[in-house]
């Protein structure tokens, strides 16, 4: 830390105002509140799966992942596309309906794991499987024990062995799953921040920052009037023109010095396009399947071939993940129709 400087007793610096030798002190003031660009969220901080004596806590905030699901249109659209294609190829059964399966798929793609609960009859037989929200389901310390934790006071323990978990493998722990798109989550959040910043940019009215540099001679109260006029130019009714009259001022007595890039629109488009590509690469979804307009005349190629390749490389491996539920339940509860 540097020591604070003592206040100088010297008079303020003087600046020549016009050709007649009159001198006037420089006056400076700020206007316009700073606009935050990035949020202070620390959702991406990785933690160990510590236990509280009854269950393990997830390594990532489930609430944060749920909110990030809607951060970027390409992020949520890619997940919904996979969910819809899996649900369309699923064959419903009395044990597991299509809606419950679609909810399982959405949990698996967003959180990296999903859960189903066995509903049993009085004799202990399995009647059906119901989806249990991954956001509120926790894995207990006891083998085969799971907990329902909607908040910090109404937790309920499931029956031992009544809940089955499907999870995406993680290199750091083997208790909970971690979503595959984690490496592109920062890009999805930056995409959202760029859009929010651009909205605030237009709503605020003071788009590019600037310095109003005045050296002319002004009558008493003129500076205060200019200050008030600039303050009123923000918010609703912005983009107003400001007229300043200085009868005795010299040329270039009032200057407007921009301190921000006027071409911010190009930077905005660059951020949006780059973060979109990152998200699509993490989800491995062809752009033509998400309705993205190509920037070149050649387009993205045949959409049918792209769909076939996407189904073979992404949807079929996901189908294999959910077929594991048959081994866990000891029954054929998941089955998919063959693609024509």
UniProtKB/TrEMBL annotation:
Residues 1-20 are annotated as: Disordered. InterPro entries: PBSX_Proteobac, Phage/GTA_portal, Phage_portal_PBSX. Residues 1-10 have a biased composition (Basic residues). Belongs to the phage portal family. PBSX subfamily. This is Phage portal protein. It comes from Croceibacterium xixiisoli.
